[in-house]
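User: I'm writing a short methods note and want a consistent example. For Acetyl-coenzyme A synthetase, I'll paste the sequence; you return only the structure tokens, no commentary, since I'll be parsing the reply automatically.
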Amino acid sequence: MSDKIYPPSKEFVAGAHVDADRYEDLYAASINDPEAFWAEHGKRVDWMKPFTKVKNVDFTFGNVSIKWFEDGTLNVAANCIDRHLETRGDQTAIIWEPDEPGDAARHITYRELHENVCKMSNVLKNLGVKKGDRVVIYLPMIPEAAYAMLACARIGAIHSIVFAGFSPDALGARINGCDARLVITADSAPRGGRMTKLKDNVNQALLHDVNDVKCLVVQRSGDQIAWRSEGDYWLHEELEKVDSDCPPEEMNAEDPLFILYTSGSTGQPKGVVHTQGGYLVWAAMTHELTFDYHRGDVFWCTADVGWVTGHSYIVYGPLANGATTLMFEGVPTYPDAGRFWAVCEKHKVNQFYTAPTAIRALMGQGNDFVEKYDLSDIKVLGTVGEPINPEAWNWYNEVVGKGNCPIVDTFWQTETGGHLITPLPGAIATKPGSATKPFIGVQPVVLETESGKEITTTEASGVLALKDSWPGQMRTVWGDHDRFQATYFQQYKGYYFTGDGCRRDADGYYWITGRVDDVINVSGHRMGTAEVESALVAHSKVAEAAVVGYPHDIKGQGIYAYVTLMTGEEPSDELRKELEAWVRAEIGPIAKPDLIQWAPGLPKTRSGKIMRRILRKIAENDYGSLGDTSTLADPSVVDDLIENRRNR
Ligand code: WT7
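Assistant:
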């Protein structure tokens, strides 16, 4: 934690959409009279039928219901494309930077985007997709991913993107979870110079399909691919059969726009549901104000569209604002650790948004990779996904930003649709490691962890919750409203609970201290420890498994797995590798345990509950504070675990 404060420069403030006074005014207005405030700011999107009701929210457990602009109608794709055609039809909407730096980048204008999306919409219709149907998108970072999202939005279909790094099993579970009848994928795709066979994964995911799920395939690599006996279609062939006339469907503000699966502390991933109107207002407003986006700027968010960050800040927010958004197919270290900065120079990027894990990884490669590029077009730097350590913050600030670009550390979640706590760069002085102050309309509270009482003093420490709704909030868990309520509204009654710990300092700045539930944050990606455990115990040689996070220099948190083998099975390095490969195959590479420790026994209470607190401490190398172990059924297992702790 650092006490240093970094105010924005006078020049920056002078040109910013929001300065300190305006932030105070907007914030006060949004809290004092949310109805009036959002009646006005809801107009930032174009409505087909204007709303007359602004907000209708109940956070009461058992009765949770969240509605914004509920009688308005609109079309999200029309807001992201059609309404810009008259004023900026020839402006670039999407800059696409391919994996190979030698391959040509593409500039897609709003007019071209319109044509591509309308045609893709008609293809979807020809394949039988109707309003309300679910479409799974399993694509690499190519423009077709944005076309597919917007085509769904245009015809009122609900998309569910599955990150292309997920395994066939994980993909299959998500296809079934939302009962999708169409999957959009690519033949295979390069990333960091390596090919992923996406269509093969889809084939495997659909091996036992009983729903006749269709598959629409984008030709990206031209590689030979296996075709199923029926139900597979090339996009380029289907495009030849359609014209580019596709009127946007009139959607209700509260119709679902997309489902995005995310990990929780228990069970299988849940389908987070975002709806049309409130989500778009939130994505657009946060994009404009948090990044101080101005017309003509080139905005680059390095996330993948498989995560919410890509939804809100590559596609929906920027395009709703008529921005130029950059989409990058590759990885930060290919062909070398200068790639991000090469792309910034090449496309004259003005706002750059990435994750602390990437910053730490690049920081470790030395400053030369940054310094050989001209980064003078960058005005704002952003981070997201996990707390940023002051060392990485300072490097980002000095080496990348030359001490001249405000850093916005944006705290939010898949569930929140967009930023919740973040500096507005012209308004709020930053402190390295703090997400600073709430965005306009957001009412964070710090609750006492045990009692749930709201702490009213400025300085506070406990768990982070929200007192009231904001337009971008998720509305439900797909097909399971009870789970929605139980996850977010049960433990602390009357509040939305984030699952994060938090400290508020004497200046009212918020410092997120990390998850307080069984969710870990690996390279800015959320992972449920329960998911990794169930993958491990699905292996025939594993009797029991317990997974916790531990501090990892680059990833933030690494995955530490304690594994008890079936009687008769011998621990070995081969078996360790086998289990790693097994989890990769069950979930995906991001879930692969970093360390596996063989555990003859796990610390359990007499009632059989695994004491994760102890496992976390051992993984963290923090034996001094194991706490009371006397309630364990067999306290001696702890000594064995400590003795055989795996070194990092
Ligand atoms: C969790 C949400 C929001 C898109 C990326 C991750 C952690 C996120 C920050 C930040 C500290 C952060 C929280 C949160 N987190 N941003 N700026 N500072 N922690 O989305 O997968 O839904 O994960 O990421 O723990 O609850 P997600």
